[in-house]
Amino acid sequence: MTDNSINTFFRADPQNQTAFPIAKAGWPFIFAAAFVTFVIALAGFKILSLIGIAATLFICNFFRDPDRMTPDKDGAVVSPADGRVVSTAVVDQNPFIDGPALKIGIFMNIFNVHVNRIPFSGKIKKIAYYPGKFYAADKEKASTDNEHNALIMETADKREICFVQIAGLIARRILCSVGEGEEVVCGQRFGIICFGSRVDVYLPPDSTPDVVKGDKVKAGSSVIGYLK
Known about the structure:
This protein has helices at residues 27-42, 46-62, 142-145, and strands spanning 9-10, 70-71, 76-78, 83-91, 101-108, 115-117, 122-130, 148-154, 160-167, 174-176, 183-184, 189-193, 197-203, 208-209, 216-217, 223-226. The protein is of the alpha+beta class. An 8-stranded antiparallel β-sheet has the order 11-7-8-9-13-5-4-15. A 3-stranded antiparallel β-sheet has the order 3-16-14, with no helix packed on it. A 3-stranded antiparallel β-sheet has the order 6-12-10, with no helix packed on it. Helix 1 (27-42) runs antiparallel to helix 2 (46-62). The chain starts with 8 loop residues before the first strand and ends with a strand.
């Protein structure tokens, strides 16, 4: 790592080799939409065909997976998701790790990139999936009541942080591509939530937030806080 005063960056994942990279999870949706549109076009339904083309393009846009450069700063925690910060507060009880925590919540609307990225380098200690409800993801009760997938990570200096993929009102599928015991790197892709969702990050309570409610952030490149 380097000094915070020097703006240096690194690439956590290999660079995409296409001009408009699409997340692997999106291809079945894209092919299905394109096939249905093709069938409708063959049947001669012009207006429905145009709607199908628009829907296919929307799905392509939703599953876009742009490359990101991650800032190389001591103690920096980067956003795990694109979207809008909906909460930054110290909570008395972390629902996934005993004790208080600094909770930062990021809401993703349907127009945001939905690929999730690791917020800090370390080792995945535990992954816990919880079935649940589907409240609007920008509501606080979504953090604990909605379907979610919690990843608890231990840093090199034995601090624990947790980041949680949360399904939203429309989202019905949470994908996670890392496993327990795996060493991960800050900014690395680790999953995706399909069609509108939220990611919460729980940091040690003495961490310093670097965002406020309403800020727009990008996964893997926006610093949301610093560990002490």
